Amino acid sequence: MKQHMREFFVSRIKSGVVHIQRQGITIYVNSPTILENLESNYFAIEAYEDAEFEGVMSQEEMLEWMINSGLWEEEDEERMDGLKKDIEKLTVEIYKNREDDFLREQIRKGIRAGEQQYAEVNSKKTQFEENTCEGVALLSKHRWIIENCCTFSDGRPYDFENISPEFIMAEYQRSFLSETQLRELARNEPWKSQWSISDKSGKDIFLYPDRELTNDQKGLLIWSNMYDNIQEHMECPPNDVIKDDDVLDGWFLIQREKRKKEKLEQEFEENTNSKINNAHEVFMVGNKSQEKVDTLNNPTAKMFKNQREKLIKQKGHVEQGEFFDEKLGMRGQQNDMYKTKFR
Length: 343
Fold this sequence. Notes:
The chain is mainly alpha-helical. The protein contains 16 helices and 3 strands.
């Protein structure tokens, strides 16, 4: 993004106003005040109840209808879950291979392709959402805000004689910045220095602190705080990682897994006695999922576990001493006894 565009977007976000031009008319779409937002929510609740009374389905009922009609199947849900996991795996890999220019860019292409496929499947799942009670309520709320928060440039309320609320609503939503754009604004000038001397809430930066935050304002605040937290992290990544959204997302995932494992290890220590803690191995049967148990295993333990499962699958019945890790343990004990004997 060019500097002049960053300047424009930051000034627009700070103002909380979006300009829409059509037929020689400039319309200001203002963020609602707190009271106006409350009024729009009352309107949304009323719209939901009216739709429900008229027999419109809720989102849950709509999904059930789609399943019964064969429009959404278990395979679709599994594909969404699989794509999400694949994207996360690739995101971790792009961080691990960030120094390899060719491989990094190939992985990036895979991430984009996965995101596109995920969006297509998700679009299939949500294709009827606007026809649900929730969809009707949300549309009614947005329409109320547009009809009550649009003005001419001189502050007079817009009368909608020449431009419909639907057109303004569509243009307003198209004006929202993507997450990628917001992240770039958050870590660069002119916002970076303004943020550094602010109170970190946005109240002393944005033009109308008495109005609700816009989507772009909320997104910019979230990412500004996120980058602050990264800089304060004990394992803060280098700048080249921070500047690359995909690589940084990989760092986020790795840190998440570290925290998850540390939490599980702490829970394990709190819920077991010293005798079990010092045991060579512990078999656990309970309400913890297989994924949680696997997380506690280090790479060596995972390798021995896989070897055991493979041997059991091959032979059906296996004695304890036949496992490779048990043989290694006994061999180590024999070596220790031999060394002690001849000291």
